[in-house]
Amino acid sequence: MLTQPFADAIAAAEQIITAAAHVRSEQDLVEGYDYLAGSIRASLQMAWAYERDFPFFVQSTGPYTKMGLDNPDTLYYHSYVRSDAEYLVTGVRGTTRDLSFQVLNGDYSPVDVPDSLTAFDDRAFEIGPDGGYQIRFGPDAARPGYVHLGPDAAMLIVREVYSDWATEKSGTIRIQRVDRIGDAPAPPTRDILTKRYGVAGKMLVSRLRTFLAFPEWFYLNLPVNTMTEPRRTPGGLTTQYSSVGHYDLADAQAMIITVPKSDAPYQGFQLGSMWYLSLDYINHQTSLTADQAREDPDGMIRLVVSERDPGVANWIERTGHARGYLQLRWQRLSRDMTPEDGPTVEVVSVADLPERLPFYDRARTTPQQWRARIAARQAAVAERMLG
User: Fold this and answer.
1) What is the spatial distance between Cα 332 and Cα 160, in angstroms, rounded to a whole number?
2) Rounded Cα gap, residues 5 and 25, in angstroms
3) What is the pLDDT of residue 138?
4) DSSP alpha helices (H): ranges in 172-315?
5) How far apart are CA 200 and CA 186, in angstroms?
6) Alpha helices (runs of H) in the chain, residue ranges in sequence order
7) What digits encode the pLDDT tens for the residues 153-169?
């Protein structure tokens, strides 16, 4: 059977899910199977998008194809490239807070993070009065206005980042290999489809193994219920810093994360499950940007991570996840971050929050206000996915 290698890969992937070290409950396992379904969809999409001569952008991850602690505020796109070819990227800049580009020398693997060969945001090129722009990528390092594709270049990643979900709009983008514009690819053959099913299977297994190993490198060696000082994101953008940690909380406990509202154009916080995925950020407030959060009069943002509703606007819902990952990101930076820019963490009783939150009365929210916050999230994501 032509599809047998992919069927075998699904069986191997199921074993990875059921054998994951963190699985302790039925919820863990159910979420793992849901993760598997999204990974199957994503692997097929990525294998069929492996087209370097007639390239196109595909969505790398999203609400239903999650991986790698995906940022709820980001639209991720990628395209495959050849290091010896010239590519033209054209688009219209939207109103999102950040638009960035990164060239990688490969894909993430269970033993390695791909090198970032170049990374930049839209401050590095000219944008016309109508928002239009062009970027050329290719092998000629000496050519002016040209983004160099090194000899190992394999993938172009684009990130479009929202801060105010309700008002910001994404732009448009496309990619073409310059010497193939106006041509057409050859029709698929049985050999090509056999290869693609095989590639999809390898991607599926590698994807799951990689992002179960990733937290062990960067998170789980940290003391529980703490967060790091801001640091450059490993394998990430040169203009991005992050602060990370992992939590383990009882239902009667709350974690207060206090962080200054930054001068960075984008600042966002999220929770992640032990599968290293974002939690449901559509129907629950499991993430907040600086624009979405309520700022205290002293310039601080105080986030309350808890299972029980504390009745405050900056509640970050655990949604039944007693353990998980914590992540703060700052993007589009024009300066280095310092420890003073980072968070402090305190674990308290939910019942003690009125005494432990300095501006508790200002932080409070009513059930009606909370429903309105969730409704706004649902509407914003639905519009974004069509954008």
Assistant:
1) 11
2) 31
3) 95
4) 190-218
5) 20
6) 4-18, 26-48, 190-218, 353-356, 360-363, 367-386
7) 999 999 999 999 999 99
